């Protein structure tokens, strides 16, 4: 069986002092896990996070990066700026980026390619809205996001990518897909990847669940056959809760 990849997405939370407190509390709580632990922190916390986690089993990620290495892109961060700091992972295409900041499958692909070229490991997010699910379009939406968002990604590049399935209707709402709903959706996504890259590559691909997973429901979700980890929001902001998710699957 695969180990799990548990990534905490802090979103726009925690200044440097708060980040230090949280990371210091988290380190001893997850030191014995066989799972991969990632914290995706705000840009202003990256240096502190990299310094504090050095020599531990915690990896550091950013929450976005641009598709260009430099240029007139005010407010953006180049992938090489992240790797220069020691950052290893980057979240790309989160539903909040798609919803609030105009992210598209095309820009997700561009950011993913740039991140890979810089040596980062992208956590690429996909997922449907409640309207799309209720309208019977879940599979159509997920298929499009994989087809368009991974259009130019090679099988070798796919080995360095993590996919996060996050039903938009279950993010920050307290509503979680049932274990079976999450597992079935991820099984469908894996099937789309299998059609594109072959079954072996699809089986090897890590696909996380990212919709309000927390310390209370993580064990059930992580026990499902298709779920390879979690992209954790609110629960990642409390060391004990995030550690409980990390340690929910042995």
UniProtKB/TrEMBL annotation:
The keyword Heme does not apply. Homodimer. HAMAP family: TIM_B. This is Triosephosphate isomerase. The active site is at 94 (electrophile), 166 (proton acceptor). Involved in the gluconeogenesis. Catalyzes stereospecifically the conversion of dihydroxyacetone phosphate (DHAP) to D-glyceraldehyde-3-phosphate (G3P). It is an enzyme of class 5 (isomerase). Its main location: cytoplasm. Its EC number is 5.3.1.1. It catalyses: D-glyceraldehyde 3-phosphate = dihydroxyacetone phosphate. Substrate binds at residues 9-11, 172, 212, 233-234. CDD domains: TIM. Pathway: Carbohydrate degradation; glycolysis; D-glyceraldehyde 3-phosphate from glycerone phosphate: step 1/1; Carbohydrate biosynthesis; gluconeogenesis. It comes from Candidatus Fimimonas merdipullorum. Gene3D superfamilies: Aldolase class I. It holds the Pfam family TIM. One of its GO terms (cellular component) is cytosol. GO terms for molecular function: triose-phosphate isomerase activity. InterPro entries: Aldolase_TIM, TIM_sf, TrioseP_Isoase_bac/euk, Triosephosphate_isomerase, Triosephosphate_isomerase_AS. The gene is tpiA. It is found in: Cytoplasm. The keyword tRNA-binding does not apply. Keywords: Cytoplasm, Gluconeogenesis, Glycolysis, Isomerase. Belongs to the triosephosphate isomerase family. GO terms for biological process: gluconeogenesis; glyceraldehyde-3-phosphate biosynthetic process; glycerol catabolic process; glycolytic process.
């Amino acid at each position: 069986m695969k180990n799990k990849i548990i990534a905490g997405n802090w979103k726009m939370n925690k200044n440097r002092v708060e980040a230090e407190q949280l990371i210091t509390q988290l380190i001893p709580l997850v030191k014995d896990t066989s799972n991969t632990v990632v914290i995706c922190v705000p840009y202003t916390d990256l240096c502190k996070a990299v310094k504090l986690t050095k020599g531990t089993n915690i990896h550091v990620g950013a929450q976005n990066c641009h598709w260009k290495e430099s240029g007139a892109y005010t407010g953006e961060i180049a992938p090489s700026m992240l790797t220069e700091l020691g950052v290893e992972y980057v979240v790309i295409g989160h539903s909040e980026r798609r919803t609030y900041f105009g992210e598209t499958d095309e820009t997700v692909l561009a950011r993913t390619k740039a991140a890979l070229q810089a040596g980062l490991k992208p956590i690429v997010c996909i997922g449907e809205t409640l309207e799309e699910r209720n309208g019977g379009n879940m599979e159509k939406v997920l298929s499009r996001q994989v087809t368009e968002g991974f259009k130019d990604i090679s099988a070798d590049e796919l080995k360095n990518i993590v996919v996060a399935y996050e039903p938009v209707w279950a993010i920050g709402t307290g509503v979680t897909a049932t274990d079976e709903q999450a597992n079935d959706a991820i099984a469908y996504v894996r099937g789309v990847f299998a059609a594109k890259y072959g079954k072996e590559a699809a089986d090897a691909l890590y696909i996380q669940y990212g919709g309000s997973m927390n310390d209370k429901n993580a064990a059930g979700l992580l026990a499902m056959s298709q779920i390879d980890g979690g992209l954790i929001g609110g629960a990642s902001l409390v060391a004990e809760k995030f550690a409980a998710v990390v340690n929910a699957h042995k």
